[in-house]
Every structure is written in structure tokens, then in C-alpha cells.
Amino acid sequence: MINSLQIIIVLYKAHLEDSDSYRTLMQNVNRLHVRWNLMIYNNSADILIPQGDYKLIVPEENRMLAGAYNEALKEAAANGCDWLLLLDQDTRITENYIEALNHFFSLETKVCAAFPVLENKNLYLSPHAYSPFWGPWFSTRKLNYGMVKNKYVSAFNSATVFSVSDIESIGGFPEDFPLDMLDTCVCYRLSRSGKSFFVLNCVLQHDLSVQDYEHNMNKTRYLSLIQAENRLALQMGITVYMSLKMRLLLRFVKQLFVPSKRAYSIDTLKYLFSK
């Protein structure tokens, strides 16, 4: 029996009324067949968020995603919640997504996480299965609806539901990956522990900021991304690290031929040949 669901929406430089996640969640959340609690985590203290029917957290400094998620994890445990739903500020919750969650909860399956299929204009983004030998940067495979057992899985955090006890079993959300590669790291640690996953019968549209070099990327963010990739690959083993090097080589070549990405090619080249 599912006790309840803790939901967190993380805001950064955004007003609550401008959040697609909050607006669409409020339109659909009463269709949920489980008890739920909502936390709004405002990572921009200079933007005033009004009090409401949610728990509002405003940290003194930006704790990024990992810090926010760990705060929600503690809240979920304190409230006796079995599940934790992660939302960024731009996720668009649909009626189909809520129906897929209700169906998942009714199954009472023993899994550590459930995630929707995420697409961007018919381009499949998440989730994927991959070989632990090569890692998530090489030869990944799409996942279909239903249970996923005995596979290494990578999925975006957006609209993912995690088992509170399973996240606690891996020590929470790793704050050495505060933003970039956090989702990949969490899924890797759960996969390594032999956990099973579930793909919801639902597709959500998702904007991937790290692929939008023209509007959402800058030097600081790109360095954060590539450093996190490098750090995680080292944790996953030498063959995975070499797989990342191959991916960086391909990325470098592509960046040279795309004007909006060319400025980042030097940083890619640096990490391609770094130890």
C-alpha cells in the first residue's frame, strides 16, 4: 500500500507563477490516488515566493539540485512518504502522466524509480539502458514501457519518482554532483546495487538546456558539465573513462563545424587529452 508522495519543485531565478511545473501540477494533482505533500525549493533568495499550501524552503545560498533533493528526501522520510517526485521549474505535467503514476502505484512493484519517456520534438531523450563496460556515453538503448530488471539505466530526473528507502540506501543524492550528471550518477548507483526500474506509459516533452548552446549554455556551465562527466566516468571505471574520451572526440569534431558551439571546442579538447 502506497502511503504518500513527496513532491518537490526546484526554482532558480524564476517566480512561482511563471513555473510550468507548478501551474500544470496544480491543474492535475488532485487526480492522484495517493496522499501528497508539496515542497517549493527556491534557490534564488532574491526572488520572493509567497507562502501557500506547500512547504517553502529558501536556503541562504544556492544548493543546486542535489541539496534541494536531499532536503525533500528528509521531508519525505519525516512524513512517512514512500516516494519522492522530482520536478524542475519547466516540466509540463499532463493528465496522462498522472494516470500513468496512478497505474504504477496500483501495481505495488518492487522498483527503485519510475520515469516517463522524455522527448524533445519527437527526439527521444530518456530513459536509456547501457552496458556497464562502456557506460552511458556509448551504445545506449531506448527503454520500453514496463519493468526494467538487471540493466544499467540512465534517466533524467525530471518527473521521475524515486523510492525514498532506495535513495537513502545509496546515501541520498550525491552532493559531489550538485547539478550536472546528478541524474546519471544516481541511476548508476541504483543500477550497481541491483535495483529494478519502471518506465511509465507516458511521454512528456522536455527542453534539454545543455543541448541549447545558443540560449542556455555559457563557458562556466559547459566546464561544470564536462568536469562532472569526467569525474563520474573515473568513478565508473577505466573502460567507461575511455568511452567518454571517444564521445569527447566526436563532440569536438561536431563543435568545430557548428558556429554556436565552436567556442567550446577548446575546452572539449583540453579534457579529451587530460588525465
Write up what this structure looks like.
The protein is an alpha/beta fold and 275 residues long. The protein has 2 domains: 4-207, Spore Coat Polysaccharide Biosynthesis Protein SpsA, Chain A (Alpha-Beta Complex); 211-272. Helices cover 38% and strands 21% of the residues. The strands form 2 sheets. Strands 1, 2, 3, 4, 5, 6, 9, 11 and 12 form a 9-stranded mixed beta sheet that branches. A hairpin with a 2-residue loop joins strand 5 (113-120) and strand 6. Helix 7 packs antiparallel against helix 8 (238-257) and helix 8 runs antiparallel to helix 9. The longest helix has 20 residues, at 238-257.
Structural descriptors:
alpha/beta; globular; three-stranded antiparallel β-sheet; 275 residues
SSE layout:
Blueprint: E1 4-11, H1 20-28, E2 35-42, E3 55-57, H2 64-78, E4 83-87, H3 95-107, E5 113-120, E6 123-126, E7 128-130, E8 141-142, E9 146-148, E10 152-154, E11 161-163, H4 164-169, H5 182-192, E12 197-205, H6 213-216, H7 219-236, H8 238-257, H9 265-272
Helix pairs in contact: 7-8, 8-9
